[in-house]
Amino acid sequence: MKKFISTIQNIFSIEELRTRILNTLGLLIIFRLGSFVVLPGVDPAQLTSHEGGIFGLLNTFLGGAFSNASIFGLGIMPYISASIVLQLLTVAVPYFQKMQKEGESGRNKINQITRVLTIIITLAQGIGYVTATIPENAILIDPWFFKASALLILVAGTMFCMWLGEKITDKGIGNGISMLIMIGIISRLPGALVAEFMTRGGAQLLFFVAELVALFFIIMAVVMLTQATRKIPIQYAKQVVGGRTYGGQRQYLPLKVNAAGVMPIIFAQSLMFLPSLGASAFADKYDWAASIATTFADITSWQYNALFAVLIILFTFFYTAITINPNQISDDLKRNGGFIPGVKPGPQTAEYIDSVLTKITLPGSIFLGLVAIMPAFARIAGVDGNFSQFFGGTSLLIMVGVVLDTLQQVESYLLMRHYEGLMKSGKIKGRSNKVAVA
């Protein structure tokens, strides 16, 4: 405890770090306050909650703003969708590939395109949000005027959330966009924890303690999955320039076991409503269609979870393949005079990196699939639906990833000022590792 208090004192003794932390907290408070501001012309008492399916997932990411019909009802999600589209385009379309290689000017162009696409996606999603999730009896003004004004406010709210995320990144600590998602998720944790405790009561208090212990070990497992890397040794050739010798040192190319992050779960989750939706169209005519619709509407069924896990494994390989290019890594190493000991530069190096990447992605994808279906197992074991979301899935992965990234940034500030860091060793794993040019 004494060491922890000393670390906190060191953090707030650095003026720049203290300012960034306060800026982050202030901007996050503004974001949370906005999630409770209801769209003009809506009666909050007539709104329905969204706990299951894709709507429930969005409501979790947005900290309840989705169900509240808030001015931040769509939050930062349209911007994330636009970013994913642009990321895929930079892999598949040569025009965007060329733009990405133009340096700072190319990134600025991509950012501008992302913002425009965000507005378009927000308008499209806003129409569906206003018409499908807000009941007619909750609208207190003229419906057409409400829809037009609500669309404008939702677009403004999303752009404001995007601005908040960028300000957190520039003036605060951590990745601002990820921080907004994390604060939305974690804001629901206290309520879910209290509700679970009240449900268990005195007779089942031991079961509640067992839930907390299980949650702790699951979090530790997710931390291991997030931090796990396979380091490939890279040797650089010695060069003599002006009588001085450069290079010759050994560095490492770290390949993450879970290089895809939470994206495979998000992709798979977006497709999991299709079997139930498609089968429900024929449920009145065929018994087998009704059975499929019922089965895949239940997130605790083994069929649902088996398909969910398989999709996550497939999407993990797909997303890893489009984000990590072994040929480009090989070319960059060759250009900078680096090589893998025992492997010839060029195509052989690319094949070696691809082979290693495939070997570590398989267990990583399987473990990611297990983490994704853990909430279903928790619900089967009797855990409340809201609290079970924190036993795995996208919510837990995002929280762990953002917290680790934030801790690493705080750690870097402490180490630069020669203060002992947050960990006993004074450094978080991966912070001091030398990374090869890739």
UniProtKB/TrEMBL annotation:
It comes from the Bacteria. Keywords: Cell membrane, Membrane, Protein transport, Translocation, Transmembrane, Transmembrane helix, Transport. One of its GO terms (cellular component) is plasma membrane. The keyword Transmembrane applies. It is found in: Cell membrane; Membrane. The keyword Protein transport applies. Belongs to the SecY/SEC61-alpha family. NCBIfam families: 3a0501s007 (TIGR00967). This is Protein translocase subunit SecY. The gene is secY.
